Amino acid sequence: MSKTNTPVIELRNVHKRFEQRPDLAQRILSVLGRPLERRTVHAVNGVDLSVNNGEVLGLVGESGCGKSTLGRVVAGLHRQTEGELLYQGRSVATLKGAERLAYTLGVQMIFQDPQASLNPRQRLHQILGEALHVHKLSPSGQIGARVDRALSEVGLHKEYRDRYPHQISGGQRQRIGIARALMVSPKFLVCDEPVAALDVSIQAQIINLFMDLREQHGFTYLFISHDLSVVKHISDRVAIMYLGRIVERAPAKEIFARANHPYTQALLAEVPDVKRRGRKFGPIHGEIPSPLNPPGGCAFHPRCPHAMPRCSEQVPDLNEIAPGHWSACHLNS
Q1: Domains present along the chain, CATH in parentheses
Q2: Which candidate, 76, 99, 79, 72, places its Cα nearest to that of 88?
Q3: Rg of the Cα trace of the chain?
Q4: What pLDDT was estimated at residue 286?
Q5: Is 228 exposed, middle or buried (0-12, 13-18, 19+ CB in 10 A)?
Q6: Backbone conformation region of residue 22, classed left if phi is above 0, alpha if psi is from -120 to 50, else beta
Q7: What pTM was computed for the model?
Q8: What is the DSSP string of 285-326?
Q9: How far is Cα 257 from Cα 212, in angstroms, rounded to an integer?
Q10: Which of 304, 318, 202, 214 is nearest to 262 (CA)?
Q11: What pLDDT is attached to residue 83?
Q12: What percent of the chain has pLDDT over 90?
């Protein structure tokens, strides 16, 4: 599979914060003299990340770590608060006209809940053909054939074209979500927990479909998941995210053989394995802190068994500890 030196997607010191707007009661109290409390969710904090042409980068972390928000920033659904997002070497903020449309169509997102992402009032052929109509990407007389071809590529017969989303199964709805992305010939797919809502047997089918499409079209993926066993199966590289920061990234084989960061090690220790059938599994000690009030220093230190005084005071840098293997932990210094 051909690759270029310029990453398809590159993130440079990207932050994303959400400001909580005061509700009616807070506004009334402010009129009476009580100061407004500005609450800020720190969803993404200074992420540097790149995804090269033709590769699959797995993004892993617990619920609430910011991985879905980061995926939405990459797909253009959220605009970063700080930092820079580049598409094929160009800053997305500077793109206009045809170049902006090329980014918009070139980066597509596949959502976790296929039912919520499909219009229940449209038939499947309308859902799939909508982008072609809106952006005038194909003559009207050819859209039907393209819809049928997309259905075939995701393993669905063309007879499904006239059904509504509620008339098909969850796995079939996820295939429609994938087919919708295929309609605009993207280069990059952001897959946000695309198999989390599916039965295990259907998960395997969808994962195999992603791999087949990669071989056929040369797609590049940002594959977001909390399931390390799925990520191991599909990813070339893996990035581990905790409370808005990347704490470790490396080739997939390296992560699973020689995980360095205590958080990565804790995640791997709780992956079910038939070789460890007699072991009792449990969650990582403690709960992920609130992004409204993240802890100082290393965000993982309240839960880390190796925490030192330095860990609560200083944010560790993401340093290269081996060729291609980066980790943000004070134990490395």
Answers
A1: 9-332 (3.40.50.300)
A2: 99
A3: 22
A4: 77
A5: buried
A6: beta
A7: 0.89
A8: SS-PPPTTSPPSSSTTGGG-TT--GGGGTSPPP-EEEETTEE
A9: 26
A10: 304
A11: 97
A12: 74
Residue with tokens 């170049």: 99
Cα–Cα dist 68/89, whole Å: 23
Residue 298: φ, ψ to 5°: -70, 125
- What type of residue is 322? A
Closest CA to 318 of 306, 329, 331: 329
Task: Fill in the amino acid letter for 174.
Answer: Q
How, if at all, do strands 245-251 and 319-322 pair?
unpaired
Quote the DSSP letter at residue 281: P
Mean confidence (pLDDT) of the chain: 91
Q: pLDDT band at 85, cuts 50/70/90?
A: very high
The predicted-structure confidence for 230-289, as pLDDT tens digits, reads as follows: 899 899 999 999 999 999 999 999 999 999 999 999 999 877 665 666 566 566 777 788
Which amino acid appears at position 249 of this protein? R
Print burial letters for 85-120: b (CB count within 10 Å at least 16), e (below 16). bbbbeeebeebeeeeeeebbbbbbbbbbbbeebbee
The Cβ of residue 215 has, within 10 Å, a number of other Cβ atoms equal to 9
Residues whose CB is less than 8 angstroms from the CB of residue 265 and which lie 6 or more positions away in sequence, other chains included: 259
Q: Which spans in the chain are helix H?
A: 24-31, 67-74, 97-106, 114-117, 124-134, 140-153, 170-182, 200-217, 228-234, 252-257, 262-269
Q: Strand order of the sheet with strand 107-110?
A: 107-110, 188-192, 220-225, 56-60, 237-242, 245-251, 325-327, 319-322
**Is 166 a residue whose pLDDT tops 80?**
yes
Top-confidence residue, 140 or 12: 12
pLDDT at 2 exceeding the cut of 60: no
Of the CA atoms within 13 Å of residue 105, those in its CB half-sphere come to 16
Structure-block tokens of residue 196: 């989390």
- pLDDT at position 288 is 83
* Weakest mean pLDDT among 99-113, 179-193, 221-235, 284-298: 284-298
